[in-house]
Amino acid sequence: TPEELAELAVFFCSGAANNVRGVAWNMDGGWAAQ
Predict the structure, then answer these.
(1) SS3 breakdown of the chain: % helix, strand, coil, rounded to 5?
(2) Cβ atoms within 10 A of the Cβ of 22, count?
(3) Confidence class for position 1, pLDDT limits 50, 70, 90
(4) For residues 21 and 29, what is the distance between their CA atoms, to the nearest angstrom?
């Protein structure tokens, strides 16, 4: 949903994402989990 994408964008802009390296983020509505 647009809200989930916005939450991810806010996370990337926050200090909490400083140590995130080499991660692929799937925002596909759960299709990858099926």
Answers:
(1) 55, 0, 45
(2) 4
(3) confident
(4) 23
Output the six-digit token pair for 9. Answer: 């964008």
Residue keyed to tokens 């692929």: 24
User: Amino acid letter at 19?
Assistant: N
**pTM here?**
0.60
Q: Which amino acid is at 17?
A: A
DSSP the chain: -HHHHHHHHHHHHSGGGTT--S-PPP-STTGGG-
Length of the chain: 34
